[in-house]
Amino acid sequence: MLPFEDQYFPVASGLKLHARTYEGGDKTPVLCLHGLTRNVADFEELAPKIAATGRRIAALSFRGRGCSDYDPDYLNYHPLTYRDDVLKVLDALNMPKAVLVGTSLGGITTMLVNEAAPNRVKAAIINDVGPDLAPEGIARIASYVGKDNGPAADIEEAAARIKAINSVAFPDASDEEWIKFARRTFRETDKGWTLDYDPNVAKALAEVGPAPDLWAPFESLKNKPTLIIRGGISDLLSPEIVAKMRAVHPGFDYTEVPNVGHAPMLTEPAAWDAIEAFLGEID
User: Fold this and answer.
1) 61: which DSSP letter?
2) Coil, strand or helix: which one is 39?
3) Strand, coil or helix: what is 57?
4) Confidence band for 1, pLDDT divided at 50, 70 and 90
5) DSSP-based three-state secondary structure for 62
């Protein structure tokens, strides 16, 4: 496994955020942004592959996730806050310009960062999310976020819980892959295995919604290299939404990951082949 460094950076509200960084070369660096309840561990296999293409890479855990601080004001769990946090972390990482890789919430944040500071974004890879969010996907996510069934007794129980929620998105996943999934989304404590995010994220989702209007932020990418990746059976990014996106940003690259829902891990062959080819065109 490629060596990495864990770093912590101050942001607004007196919080510190965790980033995991990998050295990789002098091409435009990459910053990876995860989904709603996830953290830097989602990129533990993707990051070394990107680093091998000659790029320094960092993965950031948003406030309230993983090893980043939890926010005492849960209303700060909002994409506009994450946008501002990303800009501060880009400064702290000495990345004046970066390729942003955003999964789901991370993709929403990528659009908002580009709209606010287009000079900071060299290119964008947006994973299984668009400016519209399919209601069935939002309903499914809302049905489990923040639901606390208490700690799991062991990693096998944690994996069973994750499988019960996500098997619709990963119908071909093996038992070994569900264990890996659980290790990325739970943390071991003296009380057992607990989900590795602040359950107050669910309160923010319920009270302020998943995102502001995103069509203008998405359109801000139209003159910038953009790769859209969709899970072939995604319930959040539908083919109809992709068609609407194409109308305002005709030039984006696009690929689908077969028999995967929301959201691809980006190391699947179809996803990685598209990412590798896309990055090959970025200096």
Assistant:
1) P
2) coil
3) strand
4) low
5) coil
Q: What is the pLDDT of residue 221?
A: 98
Mean pLDDT to the nearest integer, 206-229: 93
Per the listing, tokens 């929403």 go with: 108
Question: Assign residue 259 a region: left if phi > 0, alpha if psi is -120 to 50, beta otherwise?
Answer: left
Cα–Cα distance for residue pair 51/37, rounded to 1 Å: 25
Q: What is the dihedral of CA 70, 10, 94, 213, to 10 degrees?
A: 50
Q: How far apart are CA 228 and CA 138, in angstroms?
A: 19
Burial of 52 (0-12, 13-18, 19+ CB in 10 A): middle
Average pLDDT taken over every residue of the chain: 96
DSSP per position, 62-82: PTTBTTSPPPSSGGG-SHHHH
Coil, strand or helix at 131: coil
Q: Quick check: 240 pLDDT over 80? A: yes
Residue ranges of domains in the chain: 5-136+209-279
Q: How far apart, in Å, are the Cα atoms of 281 and each of 124, 139, 200, 265?
A: 12, 37, 40, 22
At 155, list the tokens.
């990693």
CATH number of 5-136+209-279: 3.40.50.1820
CA separation for the pair 266, 103 (Å, rounded)? 9
Helix, strand, coil content of the chain in percent (nearest 5): 40, 25, 35
CA distance 136 to 138: 5
CA distance 77 to 208: 9
pLDDT tens profile 115-131: 999 999 999 999 999 99
Question: Does the pLDDT of residue 212 top 90, yes or no?
Answer: no
